Amino acid sequence: MTSTLQTPSTQDQRTYQVNTFGCQMNVHDSERISGLLADAGLAAVAPEAGEGEADVVVFNTCAVRENADNKLYGHLGLLKQEKERRPGLQIAVGGCLAQKDRDTILKRAPWVDVVFGTHNIGSLPVLLERARHNNEAQLEILESLDVFPSTLPTKRESHASGWVSISVGCNNTCTFCIVPSLRGKEKDRRPGDILAEIQALVDDGAIEVTLLGQNVNSYGVEFGDREAFSKLLRACGEIDGLERVRFTSPHPAMFTDDVIEAMAETHNVMPQLHMPLQSGSDKVLKEMRRSYRSKKFLGILDRVRERMPHAAISTDLIVGFPGETEEDFQDTLRVVEESRFSTAFTFQYSARPGTPAASYEDQIPKAVVQERFERLTALQDRIAKEENAKQLGRTVEVLVADSAGRKSGSTGRLSGRTRDQRLLHFSVPAGAAQPRPGDAVTVPVTEVGAFHLVSDPSPEQYSVRATRAGDAWDRAQADSCGVPAPGAAQGTRGVSLGMPTLRAGV
Ligand code: SF4
């Protein structure tokens, strides 16, 4: 779970906190929720605030992961006492679990004030106000989208990066997935609206965008253009100041060569691809109702690597789908070995109520799933480390992250992502310029692990490039506390002083 936490409030301003469970789609929706609440005059609680300290606490839930409901009710249970102590506290529950469970949430936790679904995020401020005014819980779930999420105000978590929804919903029917029934059929946003939103993000200082959809490469299905996604990637290449373009998630079944060509030929589309495999067994893929087979999947990776030899490819895998035999599992191990993924998100199958696979017989015993999971993660960890080892000695450009990350506390290193999305921790040589979050640092890779790279460069090996995202970070610092950003004025190696520029109306 992540919390969206920004600037502290003035004394009498109501505050909010958004707690996010689940996928990137939810993280993006949470940014919209924060934007709506900020627009309604609320301020985010201070980063150090605990859960329940805000006046409005929002849970943006996920129905995909195991125990999602237990987790939610655990959090709600903890807030019950706080609500008794402080009746002004408002609690809202949105996201996939709310869309699925609806009034069950109010039955199990009657102290909740608002339940809203995935299609009506924009109603949240009104529902909160109505709940307060009528002193009665509000439940509003829509079956389909009334306002495309990206037309709502957004409060971004990072100055350097932004998410842009290109589509919502999914026309596939994977038997393990609850998304189609919760998010509905695919709805595509108009290309002009998407590009306008990207331009607005860039104007606001972002240098990286991730295009978001349940199935990005089927983008265009609604308006009948089979090459709409590759055209969109190429159009991103025309946006001045946009340095890094990523997308998630594509689907292997509809992944066509025009997308590979667009990736290879568009300067700011990053050499990185997340391509969900799920299983290496053709029999299991058929049972999952995923219409590609392992041969097609491997063919896609070959063609991507032919055009982008250094592309880092990651994946999603499910272990222990109903009916998976040891032979099927061996197929997964074989395809994983051949695929050479840089990272894999590996899940143990667990039946999600409401999905077709939940009612399949031959569910696999937990102990068998666990044992296969351990073999698969051991294999993938070895591959990840071997693939990372190929990075040793390479010079890479890192986009410095907003938060230095857990590691930095003990080592003093800063963190960021390389162009191919690998996590890299780096030290700043003594006397060299400190980069600001959002600046770009160029360093050699000096050490590797399975999940990250490390760089301890000499002064000659280290350089910093000031970016507009770093400038935006400076401005935000100045806006929130009235003093120039620390670090920006230190050192002399190519980092602009980043004097804060106060924008009218900010
Ligand atoms: S492609 Fe399959 S897994 Fe992905 S959202 Fe659609 S139904 Fe779910």
Automatic annotation (TrEMBL):
The protein's UniProt keywords, in alphabetical order, are: 4Fe-4S, Cytoplasm, Iron, Iron-sulfur, Metal-binding, S-adenosyl-L-methionine, Transferase, tRNA processing
Gene3D superfamilies reported for this sequence:
Methylthiotransferase, N-terminal domain (3.40.50.12160), tm_1862 like domain (3.80.30.20)
Cofactor list: [4Fe-4S] cluster
What PROSITE patterns does its record include? MTTASE_N, MTTASE_RADICAL, RADICAL_SAM, TRAM
Q: What is this protein called?
A: tRNA-2-methylthio-N(6)-dimethylallyladenosine synthase
Looking up PANTHER family in the UniProt record yields:
CDK5 REGULATORY SUBUNIT-ASSOCIATED PROTEIN 1, MITOCHONDRIAL TRNA METHYLTHIOTRANSFERASE CDK5RAP1
Say which species the protein is native to.
Answer: Galactobacter caseinivorans
The UniProt entry, under SUPFAM superfamilies, shows: Radical SAM enzymes
The EC number on file is 2.8.4.3
List where in the cell it is found: Cytoplasm
Question: What is a single molecular function from GO for this protein?
Answer: tRNA-2-methylthio-N(6)-dimethylallyladenosine(37) synthase activity
Q: Which reaction does it catalyse?
A: N(6)-dimethylallyladenosine(37) in tRNA + (sulfur carrier)-SH + AH2 + 2 S-adenosyl-L-methionine = 2-methylsulfanyl-N(6)-dimethylallyladenosine(37) in tRNA + (sulfur carrier)-H + 5'-deoxyadenosine + L-methionine + A + S-adenosyl-L-homocysteine + 2 H(+)
How is this protein organized at the quaternary level?
Monomer.
Q: Briefly, what is this protein's role? A: Catalyzes the methylthiolation of N6-(dimethylallyl)adenosine (i(6)A), leading to the formation of 2-methylthio-N6-(dimethylallyl)adenosine (ms(2)i(6)A) at position 37 in tRNAs that read codons beginning with uridine.
Bilayer-crossing regions: none
Entry keyword annotation includes Transport: no
